[in-house]
């Protein structure tokens, strides 16, 4: 699986190219492309939800921020709540894959529990190569 991923063989095309195209799009057209990192979402969930709402043209009002609306959204969209929805426990995606495989721990750097040092080094090398000069830091 790691070898295929590194070669760009993936359901949705070459991962590296997709990430870079969205990254560049966010720099060239920031009003049309929002680039978010999972690590940022985990580190500052409220700030990132506010950023997303602003991008969508639906910023939170002062009243909504004070009433706990952001926290309610974060809870509704939490890994815990989403993974416990019946459709995500028993349903299948468009390509007949069980939905529950899309839910792991939701922890930053959990990949370290699944990849060998050799795999990590190979992916790091590809990231350095592919993202060099782009300004994108992963």
Describe this structure in words.
The protein is mainly alpha-helical. It has 3 domains: 1-35 and 121-138, no CATH class; 36-76, no CATH class; 77-107, no CATH class. Helix content is 55%, strand content 0%. It contains 9 helices and no strands. The chain has helices spanning 2-7, 15-28, 38-43, 45-55, 62-67, 69-76, 79-83, 86-90, 117-131. Helix 4 (45-55) crosses helix 6. The longest helix has 15 residues, at 117-131. The mean pLDDT is 91. It is an enzyme of class 2 (transferase). This is Sulfotransferase. Residues 1-135 form the Sulfotransferase domain.
Short description:
It is built from nine helices and no strands.
Helix content: 55-70%
The residue-averaged pLDDT reads 91
Oligomeric state of this protein = single chain
Tell me what portion of residues adopts beta-strand conformation: under 5%
List keywords for this structure.
138 residues, 3 domains
Task: Describe how the helices and strands are arranged.
Elements: H1 2-7, H2 15-28, H3 38-43, H4 45-55, H5 62-67, H6 69-76, H7 79-83, H8 86-90, H9 117-131
Helix pairs in contact: 4-6
Organism: Cardamine amara subsp. amara
Pfam family, one: Sulfotransfer_1
Keywords: Transferase
